[in-house]
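Question:
Write out your own:
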Amino acid sequence: QVQLVESGGGLVQAGGSLRISCVVSGIDVSTNAMGWYRRAPGKERELVATITRGGTENSEGFGKGRITISRNNAKNTMYLQVNSLKADDTGVYYCNYASWRPFWGRGTQVTVSS
C-alpha cells in the first residue's frame, strides 16, 4: 500500500527558504522517477520538480537554481528545497511519481507572506 506523508510546510516571509519532506511507503524512491507537485490557491495541481532514477533533477519553469529536489534512499524520503521564496510559491505541496498516479498524501501547506 502506497503512503505519502508530506511535512515541513509553514508560513515563511518572501525571500526566505524552506525544505519540505515526503516520507514514502510502498514505492522505492531510489528506483523510480519521483516528483513534487503544487496546488496553488484556485489552480490545478501542477508539477514543480522531478528527479529521475539516476538522480537527474529538473525544476525548469519553476526556478531552476532556486528549487532543488532530492531524496534520501536509506530513508525512502523525498525533499524539496525552495530558496528566495515568492508569493507565487504559496500552495499545498505533494509528492508522487514524476508521472503521477491517482493516490495522494495530504500535502503540506506553504504560505509565503510578502
